[in-house]
Design goal:
Elements lengths: L4 E17 L2 E15 L2 E6 L13 H16 L10 H4 L7 H19 L3 H5 L5 E3 L1 E4 L5 H14 L3 E5 L6 H11 L4 E4 L9 H5 L9 E2 L7 H10 L4 E3 L6 H10 L4 E4 L1 H4 L2 H14 L3 E3 L6 H10 L34 E3 L12 H7 E8 L2
Parallel strand pairs: 5-6, 6-7, 7-8, 8-9, 9-10, 10-11
Antiparallel strand pairs: 1-2, 1-13, 2-3, 4-12
Helix pairs in contact: 1-3, 5-6, 9-11
The protein binds 2-succinylbenzoate and magnesium ion.
Length: 370
């Protein structure tokens, strides 16, 4: 596989419903799409960096900068025997995993299309459908939260995750349990607490949550290990895990019992597979996270979620929760049983609607080997 040409595209898409986390509320998503051409085929990847550096230090603009100035020259005109070689080819650049992942995942799509195989087959996927959960943001009122959960459970989703922050936590969980009983439930704090809040977080122990995701600071493995000794609810790390080595250290330290995999956070599919395999060997279940992706990134996530140790429902949900219309047609839909089939066409296996991509485009750049 040779990468002859790269196209970067900046898009803005309005969200169907605002999404609020402990970082704040967003009404739309502005993101970069990366296309790679080689030997007459094209692959595509979606960069999950946001305009602001709140979830991670990367932004849409740093991703654009690093992709065009540094990553493109490292891959353009190069021949790769397999897309698993692409991450290593970018190792001169430190960090910027979201920028790297968008390019690397486009290369996997390109290679899969050239081979005429669905991505899941190349990645080592073993299931034909994945278990889908929903991530529900902070709402204006607890009544709004309960109404949203009711709608999503009726749609079939297999588990509910609610975002929490100080002032929107124990009472929210109490109300959800009172109304919906033993539904599989978890919470995500997006690093909104400190170790000093351990006694408060321990109040969540009585609700039988599947896990609490990223309660403490994004760099802090040690405090998570200390917190895990003080609470019964299993800790799942998200923001803290940028490399397979972080994951190994976190597991060794007892900082988490579950890990959320987002390929954008670790630099793409090859690193995600290594992370998945490490967790499988250590008896740590993983699940696939989400970054409000369009149908393009969502399709990539579906393929990765088909690997065997993705044993818990992921944040990979139907298109209609995010974008209407989505950039792909048909959109991704969830079955009444809360599953989503893994596409079986070549590459990501979904049809990108070019006119919709054009309409959402703010800016385009084409990069070729000089
Ligand atoms: O922490 O998992 C997170 C969205 C944006 C940034 C961070 C997170 C999320 C979500 C939404 O929880 C998952 C989704 O539905 O795509
Ligand atoms: Mg999270």
């Amino acid at each position: 596989m040779r990468i002859d040409r790269l196209e970067l595209r900046l898009l803005r898409l309005p969200l169907v419903h605002f999404f609020e986390t402990s970082f704040g509320r967003v009404h739309d998503r502005t993101f970069v799409l990366v296309s790679v051409d080689g030997d007459g085929a094209t692959g595509i990847g979606e960069c999950v960096a946001d305009p602001n550096p709140f979830y991670s230090a990367e932004t849409t603009r740093t991703a654009w900068h690093v992709l065009s100035e540094f990553l493109a020259p490292l891959v353009l005109g190069r021949r790769f025997a397999h897309p698993r070689e692409v991450f290593g080819a970018m190792s001169l650049v430190r960090g910027h995993n979201m920028a790297k992942a968008a390019l690397e995942m486009a290369a996997w799509d390109l290679y899969a299309r050239q081979q005429g195989l669905p991505l899941a087959r190349l990645l080592g996927g073993t299931r034909t459908a994945i278990a889908s959960g929903v991530s529900i943001g902070i709402q204006d009122t607890l009544d709004d939260l309960l109404a949203t959960i009711e709608t999503e459970l009726a749609a079939g989703y297999q588990r509910v995750k609610i975002k929490i922050k100080p002032g929107w936590d124990v009472e929210a969980v109490e109300r959800v349990r009172a109304r919906f009983g033993a539904v599989p439930l978890m919470v995500d704090a997006n690093a909104a607490y400190r170790l000093e809040d351990a006694a408060h977080l321990a109040e969540l122990d009585r609700y039988g949550l599947m896990m609490i995701e990223q309660p403490l600071d994004y760099e802090d493995i040690f405090d998570h290990a200390a917190l895990q000794r003080l609470i019964l609810t299993p800790i799942c790390l998200d923001e803290s895990i940028h490399t397979v080595r972080h994951a190994r250290d976190a597991i060794d330290a007892g900082a988490c019992r579950i890990i959320n995999v987002k390929p954008g956070r670790v630099g793409g599919f090859a690193e995600s597979i290594r992370l998945h395999d490490l967790c499988a060997a250590r008896g740590i279940p993983v699940w696939h996270g989400g970054m409000l992706e369009s149908g393009i990134g969502r399709a990539h996530n579906l393929h990765l979620s088909s690997l065997p140790n993705f044993s818990l429902p992921g944040d990979v949900a139907a298109s209609r929760r995010y974008y209407q219309p989505d950039l792909i047609d048909p959109p991704i839909e969830v079955s009444p049983e809360g599953t989503i089939p893994v596409p079986d066409g070549p590459g990501i296996g979904v049809t990108v609607v070019k006119e919709r991509v054009e309409r959402a485009t703010l800016h385009v750049a084409v990069l070729e080997k000089p």
